[in-house]
Amino acid sequence: MPERAILSGNEAIARGAYEAGVVLASAYPGTPSTEILENVSKYKDIYSEWSPNEKVAMEVGVGSSIAGARTLVAMKHVGVNVAADALFTFSYTGVGGGLVLVSADDPAMHSSQNEQDNRNYGKFAKIPVVEPSDSQEAKEFVGLALEISEEFDTPVLFRTTTRVSHSKSLVSFAERRVAEKKPELVKDMPKYTMLPAFGRRKHPLVEERIEKLKAYAESSPLNRIEMADTKIGVVTNGITYQYVKDALPEASVLKLGMTYPLPTKLIKDFAAQVDQLYVIEELDPFFEEQIRLMGVDVAHGKDLFSLCGEFSPQLIREKVVESSLTLQDVAEGLPARPPAFCPGCSHRGIFTILKKLKVFVSGDIGCYTLGALPPIQALHSCVCMGASIGMAHGMSHVIETGDDLTQKTVAVIGDSTFFHSGMTGLLNSVYNKGISVVMILDNRTTGMTGGQENPGTGKTLSGEDAISADIPAMARAFGIQEVVAVDPYNLEEVEDTLRAELANPQLSVIVVEAPCVLRYRISKPVLKVDPEKCTGCKRCLQVSCNALSLIEEDDNSYVEIDPNLCVGCTVCAQVCKFDAIS
Amino acid sequence: MKNINILLAGVGGQGVLLASQILTRVAMAAGLDVKQSEVHGMSQRGGSVTSHVRFGDKIYSPTVDDGTADFLLGFERLETLRNAHCVAPDGKILYNTMRINPSTVASGEASYPEGIEANIKKYAADVIAVDGLGLAERVGNVRAANTVLVGAISSFLPFPETLWEAQLQEILPAKLVELNLRALELGRQAVAG
Lengths: 582, 193
Ligand code: SF4
Ligand code: SF4
Known about the structure:
The complex is a heterodimer of chains A (about 575) and B (about 190).
Chain A: E1 4-8, H1 9-19, E2 24-27, H2 35-40, E3 47-50, H3 54-66, E4 71-76, H4 77-93, E5 99-105, H5 119-125, E6 129-130, H6 135-152, E7 156-161, H7 162-165, E8 167-172, H8 189-192, H9 196-219, E9 223-226, E10 229-237, H10 238-247, E11 251-256, E12 258-260, H11 264-273, E13 276-280, H12 286-293, H13 313-320, H14 347-357, E14 360-362, H15 387-398, E15 409-414, H16 415-431, E16 437-442, H17 471-477, E17 482-486, H18 491-503, E18 508-513, H19 517-520, E19 548-553, E20 556-561, H20 571-575
Parallel strand pairs in A: 2-3, 2-4, 4-5, 5-7, 6-7, 10-11, 10-13, 14-15, 15-16, 16-18, 17-18
Antiparallel strand pairs in A: 1-8, 6-12, 9-11, 19-20
Helix pairs in contact in A: 1-6, 3-4, 10-13, 14-18, 15-16
Chain B: E1 4-11, H1 16-29, E2 33-38, E3 48-56, E4 69-74, H2 77-82, E5 87-96, H3 103-106, H4 116-121, E6 126-130, H5 132-138, H6 145-154, H7 161-171, H8 174-191
Parallel strand pairs in B: 1-4, 4-5, 5-6
Antiparallel strand pairs in B: 1-3, 2-3
The complex binds iron/sulfur cluster (2 copies).
């Protein structure tokens, strides 16, 4: 092991967990948090797993903590919504071994459906929040957060943002801490069994704990003042601290590494030393509101800075001092380059037919959400993990049945998302006499996050053989009569099956089994376009494959296939009316 | 030394991240502070990709602000133009002339713009076009185009050739090292003189 390396925030958190003596780590993949567990799994001293969803990951972590082991649980910001039920009462029981819950937030929604600010969870669940601003801190703060967890008998929320999770910087290493004692089960009912009688005793203790944490925050090494010129003082956190240091090198800074609860005295002292206090934080006015409630005079905060998106040094410079940069104009009118299904992806054929049938497609979260982008544009709603089936069920119960396909719903959901939280929606739909068509796009991986294992893949996170959950058998066990399989590369079969099931007045499940081509690298002989037969009608281009391109010559246009990209899936050939592709 | 800001821009799958990794490792080996930032997730699957690399005595922000890139290293011509405004007034643009159609062009909704090369020239006094694909073909692997570009930018950075070669040897699988060393050299030659 080298002494120093360039690590991403996520790799550094994994290293921090290793050094701090973490024994168990659990997670559900989600950008920008995924690489934490992928890297933890490289340390053989830590047991690590992908759980089917964030709530289960949290529960596994709670169990490990109660058994006395240091524990890390990781997820993306919206995952905490799923895990919140376990988290909020775990705040009452407190921990055995220290537990850190990493919440990787995504300001600017680089890869998310919303940009919620999870610092609010600290206040809501009454637990401390720790936030690093680079990889070195990410590594060190994991150890400090575990100490806080054990000292104050509380889970700790460890919040990162995409720019901390996915930025790389230098990190120096230390040895792994050796635990004083081994995990051990100790029966302590009043602590861990939250019956009302025990829970009532806990609540005042939780309030007391926050007071103790406030006192700790005053002198914690996580918070520090960097005094410089006193004209401007900035209270900030996380990646914004780095932006402030670049944008306002002269300013004094109060850098908060513990972002809940706040150190009142430290903030007041700092405010008293500067002429103007700025509070600069991405997303919510989380500090600003609390600082104003302390009676501190805040010169500027959200009056200047947006509640939305990411900041940058330049943005801060512009808002606080005038920008000295004259910027060049962005080149205009350039064609966008959105992501598209990989060449050969099994979703392409499915969406080509869904579009043709003009049904309402109730979507879910995964690569197939790209079916909403042009030119396909055949995915009409997407709210959260596992929601597609329940939403389609709700829609179909308020729409009068008839033959109009535009008024019929098809839910699409991937294997990993089905295991995450689609299963309960499906059970509900069969129980409550749903009539939708549910397509489970089983490509045997968690595709969007880069191909992680799940209960269907036959492998665990550490690469051991495992069960491979049988989705058709599960659907039948739920009581669904109509469970059919289709080959997504046979468009006729997809269309016939969909038409038949849409006409069927019962709930039906269509299972599409075809492995993700990115993960499993499948390829068949490459196809070619016959320029004599191709009329340049562009029909094939509607399947949105990056291997296809239109060649336009003066009075002639035709399509070409890039042999380096094509994997021979034949979808484009099947939509060609002139038989020009083979 | 003055901090150096590099913005890399290309298409998912082109090896932008590998090139960033070489740059950051060379800077670290030279004893500098270094930060790199990219966003992955939706940017894969053939979408636009950018990566920010900064090094110097002390680096705070891991991102390169618009108008402050000392170098824009473009892996594809349209992506180079899309990011050309990020270059500093005295910055350099080094780019691979190759063309990759975005899905919007492949589907016939938009067309690939004409005159990209002339437009790129408007953004900086110092613009160097490299036939990365052609040079990579010469070493027998089109995927080495990213190393050609690394070779090109290495000529303008204050690190000895041996540092670059050592990093390639460390991170690449043994069977790819020889080929990439040649790609690195071709990149250097392409911008010499
Ligand atoms: S990663 Fe897999 S599932 Fe996702 S678009 Fe590519 S082939 Fe399809
Ligand atoms: S056969 Fe057609 S759709 Fe399939 S990968 Fe090749 S070009 Fe793309």
